[in-house]
């Protein structure tokens, strides 16, 4: 059910990131990604779990859209290849939290572990966003800021950046297996 929220975010949040800038969308994405997960261990109603799962999917996609857009913008400014580093860092973070969970499971309840981890992550993300504030993309005031994307342009991007596409595929697979 998280896919429903994810698809909804994919449909609308790119335009919202252009309209409002990267910072508010990053804050919205991280909050809607982490807060529902912190609440989930305390739920006893299935329908509420489904709703929070959709909100979490919305938050994950929202955060990915804003952080990827910011990274691509920064990559174009600096000329450095930053997107693979971002996804590698995300993958390392997912793997390290799985290791942390494995090591502290005998000592903490699942609910306490998840809630404390989500609060710590949210605070760290807010600190990071605040530090990045001077370099974040602001709102776009152009009438039409969406470039025309064709299937040919998408295929050409994969041909030019085959290594990046393969690295992202592997990073996503590690993240999915980590979540399983």
Give the N-terminus to C-terminus distance in angstroms.
15 Å
**Shape annotation:** globular
Instruction: Give Rg in angstroms.
Output: 17 Å
Quaternary state of the chains: single chain
The largest sheet is: none
Order of helices and strands: HHHHHHH
User: Helix share of residues?
Assistant: over 70%
Overall structural class, as computed from helix and strand content, comes to: mainly alpha
Unreliable residue stretches:
none
- Please report the total strand number as a whole number: 0
- DSSP summary: helix tally: 7
Estimate the strand proportion: under 5%
| Rounded average pLDDT | 83
Walk me through this protein's architecture.
The mean pLDDT is 83. The two termini are 15 Å apart. The protein has 180 residues and is mainly α. It has helices spanning 2-20, 22-39, 46-78, 83-104, 110-132, 151-160, 162-179.
């Amino acid at each position: 059910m998280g896919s429903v929220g994810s698809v909804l975010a994919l449909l609308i949040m790119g335009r919202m990131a252009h309209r409002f800038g990267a910072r508010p969308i990053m804050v919205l994405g991280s909050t809607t990604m982490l807060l529902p997960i912190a609440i989930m261990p305390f739920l006893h109603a299935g329908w509420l779990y489904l709703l929070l799962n959709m909100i979490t999917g919305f938050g994950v996609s929202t955060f990915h859209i804003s952080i990827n857009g910011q990274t691509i913008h920064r990559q174009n400014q600096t000329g450095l290849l930053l997107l693979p580093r971002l996804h590698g860092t995300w993958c390392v973070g997912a793997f390290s939290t799985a290791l942390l969970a494995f090591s502290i499971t005998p000592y903490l309840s699942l609910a306490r572990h998840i809630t404390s981890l989500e609060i710590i992550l949210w605070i760290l993300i807010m600190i990071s966003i605040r530090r990045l504030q001077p370099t974040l993309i602001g709102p776009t005031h152009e009438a039409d800021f969406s470039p025309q994307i064709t299937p040919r342009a998408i295929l050409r991007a994969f041909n030019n950046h085959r290594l990046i596409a393969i690295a992202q595929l592997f990073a996503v697979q590690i993240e999915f297996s980590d979540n399983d």
